[in-house]
Amino acid sequence: MGRPKALLLLCRNRNAVIGVTIFLMFLFCSVFAHFISPFDPNDQSLPRRLRPPGWVNEEGNVHLLGTDALGRDVLSRVIHGSRISLIVGFASVGGSGTLGILLGLIAGFWGGILDRIIMRLVDIQLALPFIIISLVIVAILGASIQNIVFIFTVTSWVAYARMVRGSVLSVRETDFVLAARCIGVSQPHMLFHHILPNVLTPVIVLASFETARMILSESALSFLGLSVPPPAVTWGGMLAEGREYLRDAWWIATFPGLAIMVTVLGINFIGDGLRDAFDYRSRQYVGA
Hints:
Layout: H1 3-12, H2 14-31, H3 33-36, E1 55-56, E2 62-63, H4 74-110, H5 112-127, H6 130-141, H7 145-171, H8 175-182, H9 187-195, H10 200-223, H11 235-242, H12 251-278, H13 280-285
Antiparallel strand pairs: 1-2
Helix pairs in contact: 1-12, 2-4, 2-12, 4-5, 4-7, 4-10, 4-12, 5-7, 6-7, 7-10, 8-9, 10-11, 10-12, 11-12
């Protein structure tokens, strides 16, 4: 079954379509945040603080999701907060995926001492608590979006490396790889033109789920004050600010929390759809 049929199967998956729709909605919000947000996300006005959803200010403007403890519009902050989450999610997956795929290819294809070194690095990485690594890096380098991406890159590459290594170990013994060896194809060409394309399918599925995990992790670090500092808007930071007002101003924490939940749910739906589309039994079911 080729890519067109896999794409057709993905389009027939209702959950995947819902996931793509949710993802595109938040992507649109992050790209055009300055144009679609009704207010400046950092515009403070103490007389307007802790106003409920739907409140109309003295100028006749509606705050659809209310205001926070500093009088800032919650809807505008939720829209702008999508930028940090998606940037961190994509950049972290790109960095950790690239590093993990490269090391997995090396370990699986050449084996030997290189394989043992890389696998021991994987074991060491898995033994280090994520929060400890985050605290150390933030304490040394400071809190910024670049450092958060760096943290996620150095802590998340192991999943890709282990998956790619296992796939390479099986693919390198197939007939087309052995034939390429016999006709004298160079090892780098064989690795990147014959083996890599045949191990990317599970990596794509993994990357979709890892994107959702990165968004959750960034929100957790923001909640703990270890992510991008103010005045940048983050969903986790909004949750941290709103936890003190859960009884009297529930909307401050509720709406960024819903944004996180819906975004992660949508990306997980995409991951499920990709997994089903690339699954061999699903291919047989549609008559591939």
